[in-house]
Amino acid sequence: MTLASATSRPAGHAPRRGGARRPPDHGAWFLVLPALIPILVLSVGPLLYGIALAFTDSQSGRTAPTRWIGGLNFQDLLHDTLFWDSFRIGLLWAVGVTVPQFLLALGLALLLHQELRFRWLARALAIVPWAMPEVVVGIIWRLVYNPDAGVLNETLHDLGLGDGRDWLSGLGTALPAVIVVGVWAGMPQTTVALLAGLQNTPRELHEAAAMDGAGAWRRFLTVTWPALRPVALAITALNLIWNFNSFALVYVLTNGGPGGRTRLPMLFAYEEAFRYGQFGYAAAMGCVMVAVISVILAIRLAVRLGGGEDT
Amino acid sequence: MRAGKGARAGQYIALLGYLVFLGFPFLWLISTAFKPARELAALHPGWIPRHPTLANFRQAFDEQPLLHAALNSLFAALGAAVIAVLIATPMAYVMARRRTPLARAATGWVVVSQAFPFVLVIIPLFLILKNLHLIDSRAGLVMVYVVWALPFALWMLVGHVRAVPAELEEAAAVDGAGRVRTLVSVTAPLLAPGIVATALFAFVSAWNEFFFALVLLKTPRKQTLPVVLTHFIGAEGVADLGPLAAASFLATLPSLVVFAVIQKRITGGVFAGAVKS
């Protein structure tokens, strides 16, 4: 009953009328502080600290004090061909996953929006990859790609398409194989986002267009897509960023191999930091990644302002 | 929706294609988990185990400290979910109801925090936690998970608060109810389902998380399930497939159950709100 007694205090105030202007409210600070302090100490602070570390020679297990070395890490990075290889692979992976993922998810969302039987089953299944730990997604696909007991080679054999191969170890097949997993793993979020967008499109417009004799493709272009565009752009920008930053999936599938063919920037930075102890250098890599992501965000913002949408 | 017979058939064929693509890896996991070692070693293992067995599960528990790992995961996920929701709800309330610079800055942080690569945060966090002697500690991991779950929790909760009409609160105020009383007896009950859904989502995120746990936890008995699962894969990438599949299947079950419960809220709430604002 402590709550009841707590309420007796504000009752002393004059009853407020609805919508009346309130005096500046310092009580709000007590509501905000419990979350604000951890955010500042464990998120904003470390982020700034991390950027600062990029300008130092910080290493793990070193006894000498950390020194400020200016842009030296970035100069080294400029000449680090391994890093730029991984960077290129990261971009290839991000685009290679995001584009097919979007197209497949769009198709699925349009299907699930129809009155089809077994739609519930597809909806339920479409959620499964989302609910699974990324590590398990990686493990499942290792089982699928397994050269001896994998279902992929098994199926190819049954179809008479040869004895298959070791997909994740082949220099040419590793990245495409990993990209397929990325598409599979990220499809639920994209589908669900697009489905939410579809449900916001006014049904009457559809019906009116159909009455006017517009075909399915025309209805999609004139009614569905314009309504879906803001959602589609938002989820695509997010997917590009999330995919560029991804780690666990590829760590489990190939750990960056074979020969660095799937070594995403995050895997590279992780190794640099926690295997070789090069904290400053790895932080510099993080900064370069942030710079690229900022470009993606800037493009997204420009599209938004240029299109005059209120997303 | 009018669609010709041919178009309908095409739609069902496409749906079937999606069902196979989305479903078969998971079915293969289950199939592998229940196959005896002899069938797994066979040249052409079939889809359905001929002699289903639980031996893989027993072997999985023998090989790795799975029970410990599950308890560690439970501790981290529950701790993160409860604390994150406790501190996020009041802040989300302020963010939803007031247009102060602070509320706007918080919204900006939510967006930005989705974008930065974790390596830029984990190195300083590693150094900070090391100085606090919280490396290799479950408490340290919970702290990290709380902050990691906050952006999305705030995002979801702001949407749920906005869905509670401010007029209801104002009406209660007119009736003479104080601020606290209004929050407790009017707002909280309407917000409760949203808070539960948010907590469950934070739980699943922490239960599934891998990167922070990999970096922060070194002692095998303190590690969480996703980290322990990777121990089944040997240094050469060679894995004992049966136990690996069995352990992975078990690790997925809690998230699947939670997702089944909150699925409607995720599909409806999160993205509609997230994309609109």
From TrEMBL, chain A:
<dbReference type="GO" id="GO:0005886">
    <property type="term" value="C:plasma membrane"/>
</dbReference>
<feature type="transmembrane region" description="Helical">
    <location>
        <begin position="227"/>
        <end position="253"/>
    </location>
</feature>
<keyword id="KW-0813">Transport</keyword>
<feature type="transmembrane region" description="Helical">
    <location>
        <begin position="167"/>
        <end position="187"/>
    </location>
</feature>
<dbReference type="InterPro" id="IPR000515">
    <property type="entry name" value="MetI-like"/>
</dbReference>
<feature type="transmembrane region" description="Helical">
    <location>
        <begin position="124"/>
        <end position="144"/>
    </location>
</feature>
<dbReference type="Pfam" id="PF00528">
    <property type="entry name" value="BPD_transp_1"/>
</dbReference>
<dbReference type="InterPro" id="IPR051393">
    <property type="entry name" value="ABC_transporter_permease"/>
</dbReference>
<keyword id="KW-0472">Membrane</keyword>
<protein>
    <submittedName>
        <fullName>ABC transporter permease subunit</fullName>
    </submittedName>
</protein>
<feature type="transmembrane region" description="Helical">
    <location>
        <begin position="273"/>
        <end position="299"/>
    </location>
</feature>
<dbReference type="GO" id="GO:0055085">
    <property type="term" value="P:transmembrane transport"/>
</dbReference>
<keyword id="KW-1003">Cell membrane</keyword>
<keyword id="KW-1133">Transmembrane helix</keyword>
<feature type="region of interest" description="Disordered">
    <location>
        <begin position="1"/>
        <end position="22"/>
    </location>
</feature>
<feature type="domain" description="ABC transmembrane type-1">
    <location>
        <begin position="87"/>
        <end position="300"/>
    </location>
</feature>
<feature type="transmembrane region" description="Helical">
    <location>
        <begin position="27"/>
        <end position="55"/>
    </location>
</feature>
<comment type="similarity">
    <text>Belongs to the binding-protein-dependent transport system permease family.</text>
</comment>
<keyword id="KW-0812">Transmembrane</keyword>
<feature type="transmembrane region" description="Helical">
    <location>
        <begin position="91"/>
        <end position="112"/>
    </location>
</feature>
<dbReference type="InterPro" id="IPR035906">
    <property type="entry name" value="MetI-like_sf"/>
</dbReference>
Automatic annotation (TrEMBL), chain B:
<dbReference type="InterPro" id="IPR000515">
    <property type="entry name" value="MetI-like"/>
</dbReference>
<feature type="transmembrane region" description="Helical">
    <location>
        <begin position="108"/>
        <end position="129"/>
    </location>
</feature>
<dbReference type="InterPro" id="IPR050901">
    <property type="entry name" value="BP-dep_ABC_trans_perm"/>
</dbReference>
<keyword id="KW-1003">Cell membrane</keyword>
<dbReference type="InterPro" id="IPR035906">
    <property type="entry name" value="MetI-like_sf"/>
</dbReference>
<dbReference type="GO" id="GO:0055085">
    <property type="term" value="P:transmembrane transport"/>
</dbReference>
<feature type="domain" description="ABC transmembrane type-1">
    <location>
        <begin position="70"/>
        <end position="262"/>
    </location>
</feature>
<keyword id="KW-1133">Transmembrane helix</keyword>
<keyword id="KW-0812">Transmembrane</keyword>
<feature type="transmembrane region" description="Helical">
    <location>
        <begin position="141"/>
        <end position="161"/>
    </location>
</feature>
<keyword id="KW-0813">Transport</keyword>
<dbReference type="GO" id="GO:0005886">
    <property type="term" value="C:plasma membrane"/>
</dbReference>
<feature type="transmembrane region" description="Helical">
    <location>
        <begin position="182"/>
        <end position="207"/>
    </location>
</feature>
<feature type="transmembrane region" description="Helical">
    <location>
        <begin position="244"/>
        <end position="262"/>
    </location>
</feature>
<feature type="transmembrane region" description="Helical">
    <location>
        <begin position="12"/>
        <end position="30"/>
    </location>
</feature>
<comment type="similarity">
    <text>Belongs to the binding-protein-dependent transport system permease family.</text>
</comment>
<feature type="transmembrane region" description="Helical">
    <location>
        <begin position="74"/>
        <end position="96"/>
    </location>
</feature>
<protein>
    <submittedName>
        <fullName>ABC transporter permease subunit</fullName>
    </submittedName>
</protein>
<dbReference type="Pfam" id="PF00528">
    <property type="entry name" value="BPD_transp_1"/>
</dbReference>
<keyword id="KW-0472">Membrane</keyword>
